[in-house]
Amino acid sequence: LGRLFGPITQLSGLQETALTIVVCFDRIFEVLDLKPLIEERPDAVGLAKNVVPEIEFENVSFRYPGADEVSLPSLEQNVRAERERGKATPNVLRGVSFQVPAGTMTALVGPSGAGKSTLTHLVSRLYDPTSGIVRVGGHDLRELTFDSLRQTVGVVSQDAYLFHDTIRENLLYARPTATEDELIEACQGAQIWDLIESLPSGLDTVTGDHGYRLSGGEKQRLAIARLLLKEPTVVVLDEATAHLDSESEAAVQRALKTALRSRTSLVIAHRLSTIREADQILVIDDGGVRERGTHEELLTEGGLYAELYHTQFARPGSKDTRQAGNGA
Ligand code: ATP
To answer: ipTM of this model?
Structure first.
């Protein structure tokens, strides 16, 4: 009997295993079937290279998919909950419309939590708008291939991420085919070459915790060198809020000038010098564009910008002319 039922038991065990596998696959497919937050359309197109495009927001509203709910016991429940969560979160941007003409710089200023970073996330297509359209070069970002988007839009965030590897590898990540001369030229443009050249191993110096520790300003300049190698036509920049020593800060400012030249840029600006140089300032408040204009125009208007300016920059006795209204 044992010999008869043994294989049957084994078979049913197998069946159970098979069933489990099928159920697992079902679950996997349910997850895979989930619409990813960002997807590339089958008919996606590429932007023309070397043409500096304009950026346009048309009536853009956005809410983040919520992430504050507790995990539920099963995968299916979690998946469904994830779908539902977005519906409960508030709109972070509401009907935002503006243009950044090709080759110009727009500075975003405004109180903390106003939606400035969120605006920049939509340009690099970290998220799609809940409604409305973000265009680059006249194309809805959702019409573009990921490759084209990656090539077109360069991002420099406050905390430049560096791999625990040599400076050379960290740079080649932006343009794997770059020659030695091109690496040096980018480092010179980013005002970081003098430092690299002074290190015993030069470009082959290992950075990171167990290697050469770059300061905040140096890391940012290396990130700018990467940007110069990548040559994007659109730059999204979150200017550092960290107080750099004045020498480092002046170097970062010079590097940024090179990086933003002849590109279309959207900058979360914290420094008065950047704000003054902007072709256009957008004052973001409560998820909308409250004011727009140049530094002088907005000061004359006497609205929120003027208020931020006077509290942040024009305080009697204030020596700090670097931090803007952001975070006020
Ligand atoms: P700050 O100057 O402080 O950086 P900000 O103007 O850049 O602020 P955002 O970071 O865009 O503002 O945030 C706008 C709103 O969106 C805030 O209420 C914030 O809490 C919310 N928010 C930001 N990121 C997320 C996220 N990943 N999920 C949910 N809500 C978010």
So the answer is: 0.97
